[in-house]
Amino acid sequence: MAKPFLYSIQYSPWSEKARWALKLRRIEHRHHEYVPMIEALRLRAHTGKWHGRITVPTLVADGVTYMDSFAIAQWADQQGSGSPLIPAAQATEVSHWNDACETVMSHGRALVTPRVAADDQAAAEQIPANLRWIGPAGRPLFNFGVRYLQGKYGLLEQDAEQRRSHMRTQLKQLRQALAGQPFVLGEFTFADVAMAVALQVVQPVADSYLRLGAATRRAWRDPQLAVEFEDLLAWRDRLYAQWR
Ligand SMILES: N[C@@H](CCC(=O)N[C@@H](CS)C(=O)NCC(=O)O)C(=O)O
User: Fold this and answer.
1) Would you say the pTM of this structure is higher than 0.85?
2) How far, in Å, CA of 19 to CA of 111, rounded?
3) 189 pLDDT exceeds 90?
4) How far apart are CA 218 and CA 190, in angstroms?
5) How far does residue 180's CA lie from ligand 1's centre (Å)?
6) CA 194 from chain center: how many Å?
7) I need a surface site. Which of 14, 87, 91, 211 has the fewest CB within 10 A?
């Protein structure tokens, strides 16, 4: 049987969720670092998905395509070994927390993107290493990429304060669910993975877990939310140290 094949984006928290789940379930796989826009055709050809939206992470296993980080985690939970990520008795709760993660990260993406775009060094860091030879053409390519993301993910549809308020609601619920304990649902589950990764858009986790350029790292930090949710960032760091 061929090893599962994962398309992922190194800096993307959605990819991080999938990578972490595969690691926890000790699933060996091949990996390809996906270049947004430029490799869309390759991904469509591999998965046979010629219509509709394609996103990464995407896992292809035994001819079946899983094009969503939670779908990959659910698949991983049926394979491999280790303690369950999504215990049957808590499947509904885990799914709820995955939705909360999606809310935080999608609003977070809309806050991060303009901060990266406003910083020349951060913008330059987004050009993949194997495309750096294009030199000054990198900036227009990056600007095109920003417009592509704005359209695809509706990044301009709400203002920053509205988005922060949606994120705050979810993060306060996380604080309440944790109530000073180590795990969201009493024991370690994918709910912890999802919410720990969601905090990437509040303030990135240490470079040793997820490497980012210095300017990119600055741009991913939300100055307001990072101060308001210092306790959750500390929880995230402890969870990474023990489980990642
Ligand atoms: N619900 C999806 C969302 C994935 C997602 O938003 N992926 C972005 C990561 S930045 C992506 O594929 N970006 C590249 C592109 O849209 O071309 C999941 O959980 O996997």
Assistant:
1) yes
2) 24
3) yes
4) 27
5) 31
6) 9
7) 211
Residue nearest to atom 2 of ligand 1 (CA): 68
AA identity, residue 27: I
Q: Are residues 150 and 213 in the same domain?
A: yes
Q: Does some domain include residue 83?
A: no
The pLDDT tens digits of the residues spanning 67-89 come to: 999 999 999 999 989 989 999 99
b/e per residue 5-28 (b: at least 16 CB within 10 A): bbbbbebbbbbbbbbbbbebbebe
Nearest CA to ligand 1 atom 1: 68
* Residues facing 33 on adjacent strands: 8
pLDDT value of position 229:
98
Q: Report the alpha-carbon distance of residue 231 to residue 164 in Å, rounded.
A: 17
Amino acid, res. 21? A
Which pair of structure tokens corresponds to residue 168? 């705050």
Q: Which residue type does 20 have?
A: W
Choosing from 8, 15, 55, 111 the residue with most ligand 1 atoms within 8 A of its CB, the one to mutate for a pocket test is: 55
Span 134-185, pLDDT tens digits: 988 899 999 999 999 999 999 999 999 999 999 999 999 999 999 999 999 9
Domain endpoint, select from 78, 112, 142: 78
Is 185 in contact with 93 (CB distance < 8 Å)? yes
* Domain span holding position 9: 5-78
Pair 72, 111 in one domain: no
DSSP 19-71: HHHHHHTT---EEEE--TTTTHHHHHHHHT--SS---SSEEEETTEEE-SHHH
